[in-house]
């Protein structure tokens, strides 16, 4: 095993980092052990003081190496995965590396965490962005629409018609109007030329609008990040860059990216894995979790009162999704668990499972399946392109597309994802509710009658509209609404939700 301390801290260049790791590329003197490689180091919370961790002389290799070899290589082609191997680390060298490069890190990151100086081993991986080429990092996101089988009545109509990423973008824009992203993953994954071009256009526009801040598209040239105002760096060195219009560079880049994306099979593989590993949607998974816990003998004995009266399952207290309890143990999956799961996933028995009626006995399978699907929903692909040559004939090389960021997800993320899923769905529904409310206001202002369909809709979705807006809406149209709804509106429910005595208001009127 190579000892990275034999190199200098200055031989490595800061590239990027995520929540758990930080990456450096080798730029030192020619060395067959490190040429064309990046060093991936684990991070630790920044406590603001030195931490003397115990040295583990027998520290195992980083689990991502074993995980890729035993799991990912069974799901994706080896040519689409970076090479990974272990390298030995020394604390003094890690401290020197941190001292030299900390100033290059984003301030928000450096305040939060740092290199884990207690680690004895790191990971060397293929350098996908640091060579003499253009590297394009695309985070494709969700490739499919869920089945309606396990969706609630509130979210079903929207979730089976609008992609998850688009709904999330809508919510983010609502919270921060500066965030604008019209990219739709369904276009990118479609395999249809016009739609793939549309996806590339949207990725570029979002990247340009955010000045490179959006994480769905990142560009690198010679290993350095390219920002929207620097696209001349995508042109090869033999070209007079001042003579090339930025629009020409943009169109050439889009065409080069399109050519590779249309030829690679990686997107189809990612789409298939996402879809087949998430047959229930998180709503269905949550429902199965709740039903499984309710069937636990210990739960039944300790909560016998709930079985003595008719109560909806949704109102019975249960453990949060993914949280281990005495009623429903849920341990974090080990690599051996993942290996066993993938064997089951690829078996004929799994292909014959009836996902429309999931069984409690299969809960563990569905939990791990959802986590693995989440890995592929959050992964990135790296597309390698030759530098652009405006005005010169050339046959560009189509390189294999690599898939990165394939770390396994943790069960403790499920609660957060469930909450986010609900927020995204309700955000879109609320917007639709407000739009329809505006239409009703216009109808009433013209003394038009409200249809039965409008009455039923407002009765059902009133809780999605702000309580104050409801009151203001009713004040101007009390008699009309009382006649139309025949006092069937859920006034008590709205009053309870919004802490407003709307029923008393109508009584006075």
Automatic annotation (TrEMBL):
<dbReference type="InterPro" id="IPR043001">
    <property type="entry name" value="IP5_2-K_N_lobe"/>
</dbReference>
<dbReference type="Pfam" id="PF06090">
    <property type="entry name" value="Ins_P5_2-kin"/>
</dbReference>
<dbReference type="GO" id="GO:0032958">
    <property type="term" value="P:inositol phosphate biosynthetic process"/>
</dbReference>
<keyword id="KW-0547">Nucleotide-binding</keyword>
<dbReference type="InterPro" id="IPR009286">
    <property type="entry name" value="Ins_P5_2-kin"/>
</dbReference>
<dbReference type="GO" id="GO:0035299">
    <property type="term" value="F:inositol-1,3,4,5,6-pentakisphosphate 2-kinase activity"/>
</dbReference>
<keyword id="KW-0067">ATP-binding</keyword>
<dbReference type="GO" id="GO:0005524">
    <property type="term" value="F:ATP binding"/>
</dbReference>
<keyword id="KW-0808">Transferase</keyword>
<keyword id="KW-0418">Kinase</keyword>
<comment type="function">
    <text>Phosphorylates Ins(1,3,4,5,6)P5 at position 2 to form Ins(1,2,3,4,5,6)P6 (InsP6 or phytate).</text>
</comment>
<protein>
    <recommendedName>
        <fullName>Inositol-pentakisphosphate 2-kinase</fullName>
        <ecNumber>2.7.1.158</ecNumber>
    </recommendedName>
</protein>
<dbReference type="GO" id="GO:0005634">
    <property type="term" value="C:nucleus"/>
</dbReference>
């Amino acid at each position: 095993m190579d000892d990275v301390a034999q190199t200098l801290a200055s031989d490595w260049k800061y590239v990027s980092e995520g929540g758990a790791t930080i990456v450096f590329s080798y730029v030192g003197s020619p060395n067959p052990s490190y040429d064309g490689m990046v060093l991936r180091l684990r991070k630790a919370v920044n406590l603001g003081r030195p931490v003397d961790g115990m040295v583990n002389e027998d520290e195992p290799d980083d689990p991502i190496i074993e995980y890729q070899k035993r799991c990912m290589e069974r799901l994706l082609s080896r040519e689409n995965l970076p090479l990974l191997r272990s390298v030995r680390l020394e604390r003094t060298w890690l401290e020197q590396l941190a001292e030299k490069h900390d100033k290059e890190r984003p301030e928000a990151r450096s305040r939060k965490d740092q290199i884990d100086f207690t680690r004895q081993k790191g990971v060397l991986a293929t350098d996908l962005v640091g060579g003499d080429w253009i590297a394009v990092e695309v985070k494709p996101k969700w490739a499919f629409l869920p089945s309606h089988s396990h969706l609630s009545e509130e979210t079903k109509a929207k979730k089976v018609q609008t992609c998850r990423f688009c709904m999330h973008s809508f919510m983010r824009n609502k919270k921060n109007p500066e965030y604008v992203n019209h990219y739709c993953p369904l276009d990118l994954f479609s395999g249809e030329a016009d739609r793939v071009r549309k996806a590339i256009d949207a990725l570029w526009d979002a990247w340009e609008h955010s000045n490179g801040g959006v994480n769905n598209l990142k560009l690198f040239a010679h290993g350095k990040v390219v920002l929207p105002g620097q696209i001349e760096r995508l042109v090869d060195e033999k070209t007079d860059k001042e003579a090339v219009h930025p629009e020409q560079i943009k169109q050439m880049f889009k065409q080069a990216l399109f050519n590779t994306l249309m030829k690679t099979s990686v997107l189809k593989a990612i789409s298939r894995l996402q879809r087949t590993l998430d047959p229930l949607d998180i709503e269905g998974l949550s429902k199965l979790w709740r039903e499984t816990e309710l069937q636990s003998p210990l739960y039944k004995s300790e909560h016998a009162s709930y079985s003595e009266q008719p109560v909806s399952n949704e109102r019975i207290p249960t453990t949060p999704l993914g949280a281990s309890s005495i009623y429903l143990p849920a341990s974090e999956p080990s690599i051996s668990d993942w290996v066993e799961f993938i064997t089951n996933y690829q078996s004929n028995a799994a292909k014959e499972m009836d996902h429309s009626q999931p069984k409690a006995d299969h809960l563990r399978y569905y939990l791990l399946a959802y986590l693995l699907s989440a890995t592929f929903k959050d992964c990135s692909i790296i597309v390698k392109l030759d530098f652009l040559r405006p005005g010169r004939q050339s046959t560009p090389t189509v390189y294999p597309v690599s898939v990165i960021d394939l770390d396994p997800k943790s069960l403790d993320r499920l609660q957060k994802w469930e909450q986010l899923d609900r927020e995204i769905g309700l955000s879109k529904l609320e917007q639709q509710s407000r739009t329809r409310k505006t239409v009703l206001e216009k109808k009433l202002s013209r003394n038009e009658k409200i249809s039965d369909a409008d009455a039923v809709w407002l009765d059902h979705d009133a809780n999605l509209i702000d309580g104050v807006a409801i009151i203001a809406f009713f004040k101007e149209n009390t008699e009309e609404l009382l006649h139309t709804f025949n006092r069937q509106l859920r006034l008590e429910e709205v009053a309870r939700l919004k802490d407003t005595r709307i029923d008393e208001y109508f009584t006075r009127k």
